[in-house]
Design goal:
The protein has 430 residues and is α+β, with helices and mostly antiparallel strands. The chain has 3 domains: 7-75, MutS, DNA mismatch repair protein, domain I (3-Layer(aba) Sandwich), CATH 3.40.1170; 95-245, no CATH class; 253-407, Dna Ligase, domain 1 (2-Layer Sandwich), CATH 3.30.1490. It has helices at 10-18, 42-46, 55-61, 74-88, 113-128, 140-155, 175-183, 195-203, 209-213, 217-223, 226-235, 266-286, 324-338, 358-365, 374-388, and strands at residues 2-7, 27-30, 37-40, 68-71, 95-99, 102-106, 132-137, 167-169, 253-263, 289-300, 310-321, 345-357. Strand 2 (27-30) and strand 3 (37-40) form a beta hairpin. Helix 10 (217-223) packs antiparallel against helix 11. The longest helix is centred in the middle third of the chain and has 21 residues, at 266-286. It is globular and about 55 Å long. The termini are far apart. The structure holds magnesium ion (MG). The site of magnesium ion has 4 residues, from strand 1. Magnesium ion (MG) binds at residues 6-7, 10, 101.
Length: 430
């Protein structure tokens, strides 16, 4: 059994924690570079504001709607994410952090898991102020779908039975009830079915998630791909997806891992984080993106009786990039800032945030290193790694020491760093 814990409208929800006056209003968070919506409150969604819509268009189309736009504050989101993740980890052993606001948790064999999910959801809300949805199912694909049901039932009354709102455990349903839920769900909502495959399936006369669950895996493999076959099997309750197989969320790229054995030394964490940074940068280049910020985190295991420590830091890059060495340098700088000796670390990860299209930035990049074509170097590295296997060429960690202060760069105007800077801490007055 898997659970997916997912923060609702995450960036907007982080902002609302510190500005309660934003509750009930249409609020969006804009990307730093091109001013497009990257997070929307339910009220903004109800106005028809699309993900990725540029602010000037929104203003023009909805001058009277009172939409409030905020600049993305990744330092705040990274820190709130870390708090949410640490509480979510208590749901069950084995947490895979999938993105800044989503983690899968293995909840096999845990009794009364629906009730426990409700308690964890309440705790996250009470301790951090972030509302989230929890979906559970016998596979990750079904857990993800259950999460969609949990959120829809909460947001759009009537879409699904009200008892599924906020926490939905599809694993607890009798087969006929599960079929009814799948039948009420469009196939495009299935994790891993993108627009193109979705259109192909619809051309075959398929409509709902139930139609997909009833496909024959062998035929799917022959006619489409092994990737879609995995999705179909997962819909049938047969686990076969591990996170490596899943295309990253477009908003951010994450590379995170639980360690085989606890790690105590900084030098070992540097190695792990260097590797995660390299993989994340490779994914970033594959989607022709640049990142503006790098988040790095380290956690101990909440399921050991050892001393607990869990920190993350968001490091702005001087200029958006997909360059492995710059991204790794930022990640290692961040790691050194948050590392504390005397703990047994169980998990670490790197996330790339503030993503944008590489094409937007190209003209400016050459200013940095006039002598070196970094883009060419990076594609050469990617090419060698495809040919000789992952990690054939990577950065020597020794070369990454040094200019660690690159990461503490100036921030442009945005909301305060409420949770990570003493001078920004909100003061409550009686
Ligand atoms: Mg979310």
């Amino acid at each position: 059994m898997f659970a997916l814990v997912d923060g609702n409208n995450f960036y907007v929800s982080c902002e609302r924690v510190f500005r309660p006056s934003l509750q009930g209003r249409p609020v969006i968070v804009l990307s730093n570079n091109d001013g497009c919506a990257i997070s929307r409150s339910n009220e903004a969604k109800a106005l028809g504001i699309a993900m990725g819509a540029p602010w000037f268009q929104i203003q023009r189309a909805l001058p009277e709607a009172g939409v409030l736009a905020l600049r993305a504050n990744f330092t705040l989101y990274g820190d709130m994410s870390n708090r949410m993740m640490s509480i979510a980890a208590g749901l069950g052993p084995g947490q895979e952090i999938y993105s800044i606001d989503e983690s899968f948790i293995d909840v096999s064999g845990i009794r009364d898991i629906t009730r426990r999910g409700q308690a964890v959801r309440e705790r996250i809300l009470q301790w951090t102020g972030i509302p989230c949805g929890i979906g559970m199912g016998s596979t990750k694909t079904l857990a993800k779908l259950a999460n969609h049901v949990a959120k829809s039932a909460d947001r759009k009354p009537g879409s699904y039975p009200v008892e599924f709102a906020r926490v939905c455990n599809l694993g607890a349903l009798p087969a006929a009830d599960l079929d009814a839920v799948l039948e009420a769900t469009e196939l495009g909502e299935i994790w891993g079915i993108g627009r193109r495959i979705g259109a192909q399936l619809q051309a075959e006369g398929l409509r709902t998630a139930l139609d997909v669950a009833r496909m024959d895996p062998a035929t799917v493999r022959r006619r489409w791909s092994i990737v879609l076959e995995r999705t179909v099997r997962e819909m049938q309750g047969q686990p076969c997806i591990d996170l490596e197989h899943v295309a990253p969320a477009k908003k951010e790229i994450a590379c995170t891992r639980s360690f085989g054995q606890p790690i105590t030394k900084l030098v070992d964490l540097v190695e792990a984080v260097t590797e995660f940074a390299g993989r994340a940068a490779e994914k970033l280049r594959k989607q022709q993106g640049h990142a503006g910020q790098v988040l790095v985190f380290i956690h101990t295991s909440p399921f050991r009786s050892d001393k607990q420590y869990s920190r993350s830091i968001t490091v702005p890059l001087r200029r958006p990039t997909a360059d492995t060495s710059l991204i790794a340098q930022a990640a290692i700088g961040g790691l050194k800032a948050i590392f504390q000796g005397g703990f047994k670390f169980a998990k670490a990860g790197v996330m790339l945030l503030d993503l944008q299209d590489a094409a937007v930035e190209q003209g400016e990049l050459a200013l940095d290193d006039p002598g070196v074509d970094r883009g060419q170097l990076m594609s050469a590295i990617d090419g060698l790694n495809v040919r000789y296997g992952r990690g054939a060429v990577k950065l020597a960690s020794a070369g990454l020491e040094g200019d660690a202060r690159r990461w503490s760069m100036k921030q442009s105007l945005r909301t305060p760093e409420y949770t990570t800077r003493w001078t920004d801490m909100p003061v409550a007055r009686a």
